[in-house]
Each structure stands twice: as structure tokens, then as C-alpha cells.
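For concreteness, we quote verbatim a single protein encoded this way:
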Amino acid sequence: MNPSTALATVLADELLRCGMREAVLAPGSRSTSLALALYALEAAGRVRLHVRIDERSAGFLALGLAKASGTPVPVVTTSGTAAANLHPAAIEADQSGVPLLLLTADRPPELRSTGANQTIDQVKLFGDSVRLFAEVGAPERVVGMTAYWRALTGRAWAAATGTLTHNPGPVHLNLAFREPLVPDGDFDWPEPLGGRDNGAPWTSAEAPAVMAPNVRLPARTLVIVGDCTPALGRAASVLAEEHGWPVISEPSGNACRGPNAISMGGSLLEVDAFVDAARPEQILVVGRPTLSRSVLALLRDPRSTVTVVAGATNWADATRSAAQVLPALPAADGHHEPDAEWLALWHDVEFAARGVLAKLLDDEDATELGLANALHAALPADGLLFLGSSMPVRDVFTAAAPRDGVTVLANRGAAGIDGTVSSSVGAALAWQRDGGGRAFALMGDLTALHDANGLVLGPDEPQPDLTIVVVNNDGGAIFGLLEQGHDDYADAFERVFGTPHGVDFAAWCGATQTPHTRTASVGAALDAVLDPRGSGIRVVEVRTDRAAVARTRRSVRDLIESAVTSLL
């Protein structure tokens, strides 16, 4: 057996033993040995393989698979710029703590720095974005390779899952392959290539126990949940309910559920009079809050003490206000005495704000906020919703009412719009493999166009049941809410921020043979989205007026402030 085939065979087998269920591959020459090894596992029914022609899409597909499953997913590329195209997904995985295995094929050392084709410096290509980097080295026909390859694979798996560190994230293995890259029909090797008996991994890492800290927090504790795993967000919601604490959760925190959820918390905290009346003594931060300036302003205020829950050294504290960091959620305190009057104040103002918002959503100009609210409310209880990181995640945060059942994911690590189509496809595939129901995605037009290749799936590829809702306002709506959206910059705004594109989404979908429906109202959009007929990926386009919607969003604060202030 030639060395490249031996390395690829052992690596694929050990990944399987560690727990690999999915693998993503972008075709290339230098990665041939590993591609054939993964194909053999797919043919034997032992792994589900996904092939994409675009490495950036492949990286984000793997990210979505790993985000929804919590299990590392390897993504394989050839050498050169192919490997570099994984960098955006690596950054997102790093920032959001998603286990990812970046397996980049490379030229052997003797071809580097020689002008050899498709050869760049891939050593530590992703810098500090990875939890572990290993230059695996060109395989040699010598005794000891089996143990080296299998032990390194186990170490990479443990680093990606964060088993010992509680800090999951991407891992990079750079794999130098010498020709021949295809099997040569010779199965001779100087030592056995097999692994441990009974399919066990070569090295199994055991996670250290983390005890819930016995920390007593005061009755006037506000729980803020940012982007985190759904399990952690739901546990935070349960803890808050047990103690009588209000909860403000970003959509991907998955804690906007139960009787203590304050779904309009971000808007309420913009009202100074309410903040003064309901100021918490303690704030418990779970996950990574990024969406709301008013939430960050509250965290920055020294009149409240901030406690952060984080299992790793890179805890979220953008305001530099954390007074205490806990390794896990505090234990439930059976001796607490909730402040019912304080919690009632939060509920009263929430009720008043939702009443104002309900009237606002009857206006045709509120299409995007109304769509976010109606879609979130109408999805089936076992559904998955993947949100784009521009306006959709903010619209759900602003408008959606509390509810159980739906799991919400988003790429909120680096919060870019890169790869959202591919990530939603990957998340839907993993979700439905594990028995979940229908999957949906909500994203803007620029986000969809940024990952247009995400809809390029070959006829033999696994297909999820995924409905992608694209809000098309012909440009970048989010900039209209920022300082550059002020009338003083009107002349420059449309040219350098609005960026109208005029793309025909029906034609885009037609080119990829993706079913497409165009609508112009919330009701028609919901009818198309919830239509149970058909399966696979389909796109529902909702046309909106960017300028009108921007005016409506800017009026939300004034209307809510008036309603809440009159109540206090």
C-alpha cells in the first residue's frame, strides 16, 4: 500500500471510531487519497458524505452540520487557495465554539517554496482561530505511523469537542500527500494498520466534571442570554423560572420561552425611565450577547453587578464589567424569595410594549418585522429556524413573542453574512437526521447572494426539507439604522451602503433548479412557507420596500417609549 493511501485510510477509520457521522468534501487532486477513503465509508453506509464544488460553501455546510449536531464534522480540501477558502468558516467556528475539523491536503515539503503548482504556505494557515494545529507530515513506510496517525486523530477530536477544555472549536490538520495518490493494488505495509478492538478509538478523552456552583444571587437578578447552545439557553430559562428572574434572550440563545421571558427586553431597555424603575441588582450573563446596544449599556452601568457563565477562558465580557465568572449555571437555590412585584413590573411593561407593536405590525410598511413575528409564531413545534445575521435576527429579537418548541440557530460568532445558505442547509440536514421536523431559514437578499453557491447541490447529494425565506428589499437595509443612514449622508448612502443589485431571484433559483415563490405580503409568505407539499430545498422571496421599512423601524423606539413611560 502506498503511504498516501495508508494515511488516508487510517485517518478516515479513526475519525469514524471517534464519532464521525458526516463529512464534507470539495473535490481536488492533492486530496484524492482522503476523498477515496471517505467515499469507501459512504459506500459501506458508515458515513454520510456531502460534496460541494465551492470550498467556502463546503466550510459553512460543515459548520451548520456541526452547529446543529454538536459533533465535529471534517471538511476536506485540496491545497492552495482551496484551503484558504475555509478561513471564514474557521473564524465563525472559533468565535461561536463550533467543533470543526479542517483537513487540508498539501504538497510534500520538497515541493514547497519551489513554484510548484497550487502550493502555498499552509502551515498555521488559520492562525489563532483554531484550537489545535498539526503539520501531520508526509506519510512514510515505517513502523510507528499507525499509532502516530490514530493518536493524533484522537487528540484533534478532543480539541474540537473541547472535551478537556470545555472550549470547542475548529482544529486544523495539514496533510502532505506524495504521489501516487490512488491505491496501487498492493496491501503490504510494515505494521498493522488497524485500530483498537471492537471499533474503539485509539485514544478516548474523558471530560472533567463541572459542578454547578453554589452561588446565591439576589431576587432582583436579570438573566441575559446571548448566542449559546440551545441546551444551555433552555437551562438558563428553567433556572430563571425557578427563581422568579426575568429573562432577556437573543433568538439564538433559545431562552425566549416560559413565563419569565421578556421578549421585547432590548426595546424596553432603551427607555431610560423604565431602566431607572426596574434596574437589576445583579445581571447573570449566559452566552455571548451582541445584538442590542441597550443591553450592552445596561451591562456597562456600574450600578448592577455582572456575573458571567462561561466554561472556558474566553468568556463574553465586551463591556469589561464582569465581577465574577462561573464555570456553569449556578445551582438552583430552594431557599430563595422571588421579588414578585419587580417581576410583575417587567411583565406589565412587556405587555404594554407588545400592544404597541401589534398595532404597528398592522401597517403594511412593517412587513419585515411582521414577517419575523408571524413566521416565528407559526412554525411547527419541532421546527428549526436558521436566521441571517443582519436584519432577520434583529427583527426576531424585536418582534417575536415568547414560545416553546422552535430551535433557533444563527452564525453569531463573527456575525457575518458569509455562508448563511450553506450553514442553514447543513443545520437542516443534521437536525432532520436526528429526528427533527421541518427546517426554515430567514435571511436578507444580500445574505442570500453572498452565498449563492449554497444552492448548488448535485443530484446525488443529501437534501434537507428546508424552506429559505429571502426578504428582498434590493440592498443593505441594516445600514439605514446606523449613523450613516441619517439624512445628512443621503447623497452617499445609496451608492456605498444601500447597494441596490436588481438580482432576479427567480432566475437564481431556476439556475439551481430550486423551487421559487415570490410574495409581497406576510399572509402570502406564510401560506407559501407553511405549505406542506413537496420537500427538499425551496425559496420563498418576500419583496419589501427598504425605505418604508427603515422608517417603521426607526419609529418603534418612540412608540414604545411613549407607551412604557405612560405606564410608569
Q: What stands out?
A: Residues 221-352 form a domain with the Rossmann fold fold (CATH 3.40.50.1220).
